[in-house]
Amino acid sequence: MLLGLCCLLGCQRGDPVYAPGASDGPRAVEGREGSDPTKAEIWEHFGRVGDFEVLGSFPSRGHGTGRWDGELRGSQGTGVAMAALIGPSNRMPVGTVLVQRHTQRQGGVDFGLFAMEKREAGSFPAGGDWEYVVVGRDGRVEARGKLESCARCHAEAPVDFVFAPP
């Protein structure tokens, strides 16, 4: 299954240095010996995503080379936090959750969610102190944590590893 969380909001500004949605970094998830996907945990925010603030809907250029439409949502107050990115702090507050629901442009098939949750400073400096999460359609966590492939792409974002909606 596609694990392109590395580009939550469209990993490109201007001409891409590499093909969007394709990373030459380590895979986000390697097969885990003895793991049973039916026993994966449900993402703790999954039941609340529908209540999150809608920040925009647009093609997700970085995930799967643009074949997905993405609806971006954020935890309460994220719209204010997004506006603050251009202010003096240039950092989202700890605890902010950004979620992008992906639907295939041809056929409308729901893929699932890519999410980022802001953690304490120093928790993952190479990833902007974000925890990256890939969530399946059923709410089960497919990958989470210090996902290098996500961090690599999001490092190209203009501020705080976040690509603003167009």
Characteristics:
single chain, 166 residues, Chalcone isomerase, 8% helix, disordered N terminus
Give your account of this protein's structure:
There is one protein chain. By secondary structure, the chain is mainly β. It has one domain: Chalcone isomerase (3-Layer(bba) Sandwich). Helix content is 8%, strand content 27%. The protein has two helices and six strands; from the N terminus they run ββαββββα. β5 and β6 form a beta hairpin.
Per-chain topology:
Elements: E1 53-60, E2 68-74, H1 78-84, E3 97-104, E4 110-118, E5 130-136, E6 141-145, H2 148-154
Antiparallel strand pairs: 1-2, 2-3, 3-4, 4-5, 5-6
CATH class: Alpha Beta
Give the SSE order as H and E letters: EEHEEEEH
Q: Give the number of domains.
A: 1
CATH fold annotation = Chalcone isomerase
What does the main sheet amount to?
A: 6 strands, antiparallel
By DSSP (H or I, 4+ residues per run), the number of helices equals 2
Strand order of the largest sheet: 1-2-3-4-5-6
Distance between the termini: 27 Å
Structural class: mainly beta
> Which spans of ≥5 residues are poorly predicted at pLDDT below 50?
1-35
CATH-level-4 superfamily name: Cytochrome P460
What overall form do the CA principal axes indicate? globular
Radius of gyration: 15 Å
Helix content: under 10%
Number of DSSP E strands:
6
Q: Taking all residues together, what is the mean pLDDT?
A: 74
Supply the CATH architecture.
3-Layer(bba) Sandwich
Q: What portion of the residues fall into strands of 2 or more residues?
A: 25-35%
